[in-house]
Amino acid sequence: MAKASVTGQITVISNGTTFYTVLQCQMGDIYQTYLGDTENPTNITPDFESDGATKPMIVFLAYSSEKANGNGLYPIANQNVHWYINNNTELTFDSQGVSTNNFGGVTGHFTKTTQVIGDITVPALVINKNLVKINDCNSFLINAEATVSVTNSSVHLSGAYQVSITYGTENTKKVTIIAGDTNFFNINEKGGSCKLKAWVDNADAAGLGYTFKWYVNNDGNWELQSEASDVISIMETQVSTSALVKLEVYKEDDLYGMDVQTVNDTSDPYHITPNPREPKGSDGVGDVVIEQFTNGEEKTIRYAPILWYNKDGVRTTVSNQTFKMWLYDNAGVLIKAFDTAAKFFDVTSASIVEHGGSVYIIQTSD
Q: pLDDT (tens digit, 9 = 90+) per residue, 184-213?
């Protein structure tokens, strides 16, 4: 079973119900570039405040093993959700759900709301304004936390989403995979699918003379798909728990840009949690850690994956399982391959920071 980039945690409560969480955005990535200096940034792209701009929406998804087979989307009450910046600044909201925090002399960057996915209402956060000055022109995390009650037990759920802020140029070009439907890159039933759509220079790419190549990662290799339009449907049969999809956009014969996106199949009875931990000795693990590196730090994350199987609402661990792991930059270029079967993988800050981040696949070795 494959598992791509998921930032969050798995929690097991007393009655055996297991949750895993993820924050997703219909725009795929949330990023902004700027010119000028950090006190007076200019030429912000994309400009979320411009007329007609698409407002990114982050949804907080929690999947529960209470579904008979697979993982069911669990309804979290919006009033129980707390949103944070970089784990420490809690967002506060007025009676209309608009944020009241002051960042760089401006308020109203976010709106706390909900979104319907299938027949489940999930918590959501809409981006209203430009985010460049939220963290003094640096990238940052948006975190969500909630406490839910299940069978007289309380469980704390959390997830994180990275917003990328970089110094850019006026002709910065960007290719982004966005959600082509309301499934937010998730396949929720057997025989289901989800749509992915190309977005070029912050706009719909259809009919503008671009050509498109779509790939799905299989065993560490990018397999070219037959679809050549700006929209692709990914079927449940193409995804083993999770998969990475890559898009290449060409202008005439020249590569214009690339992007990668994770697709999750929540109907699959198998699920891999990446289980990022502090290293302990040569082959042990310590506390759970956030999947984040900071420039200048020397840090290692030890991934000790766990394979789960869910049947009739009961989730069990598959023992003695080994895995393989591949890390890619945000354009889908291979950074490192752990292609020898193992029970854990050490990823260092030195291997990731220079690439500005990474997406990965962890897959069972048999």
A: 888 877 788 999 999 998 788 888 899 999
Quick count: other Cβ atoms within 10 Å of Cβ 78? 16
Q: Which residues of 195-220 are buried (b: 16+ CB within 10 A; e: fewer)?
A: ebbbbbbbeebeeeebebbbbbbeee
pLDDT value, residue 14: 41
| String of DSSP letters for 90-133 | E--B-TTSBB---BTTB---EEEEEEEETTEEEEEEEE-S--TT
Specify the 3-state DSSP secondary structure of 173.
coil
Nearest to 247 by CA among 29, 32, 58, 23: 29
The residue with tokens 């719909």 is: 204
Report the SS3 class of residue 279: strand
Higher pLDDT, 15 or 265: 265
Residue 245 contacts residue 196 (beta carbons within 8 Å): yes
Residue 321 identity: Q
What is the structure's pLDDT at 312? 64
> What was the pLDDT predicted at 221?
86
Q: Which residues of 65-74 are buried (b: 16+ CB within 10 A; e: fewer)?
A: bbbeebbbbb
Cβ-count burial of 283 within 10 angstroms (0-12 exposed, 13-18 middle, 19+ buried)?
exposed
Nearest to residue 87, comparing CAs of 10, 160, 163, 24?
A: 160
The pLDDT confidence band at residue 67, using thresholds 50, 70 and 90, is low
CA 332/CA 246 separation, integer angstroms: 6
Bridge pairing between strands 153-167 and 30-36: parallel
Question: Which uninterrupted H or E stretch holds 310?
Answer: strand 306-311
Give me the percent of the chain exceeding a pLDDT of 90: 30
Looking at residue 12, its pLDDT comes to 36
- Domains located in the chain, CATH noted: 2-265 (2.60.40.1930), 270-364 (no CATH)
Instruction: Kindly report, residue by residue over 239-284, the tens digit of the pLDDT.
Output: 877 788 999 999 888 999 888 888 888 777 777 888 888 998 888 8
Mapped onto helix, strand or coil, the DSSP state of residue 351 is: helix
Pairing of strands 193-200, 231-235: antiparallel
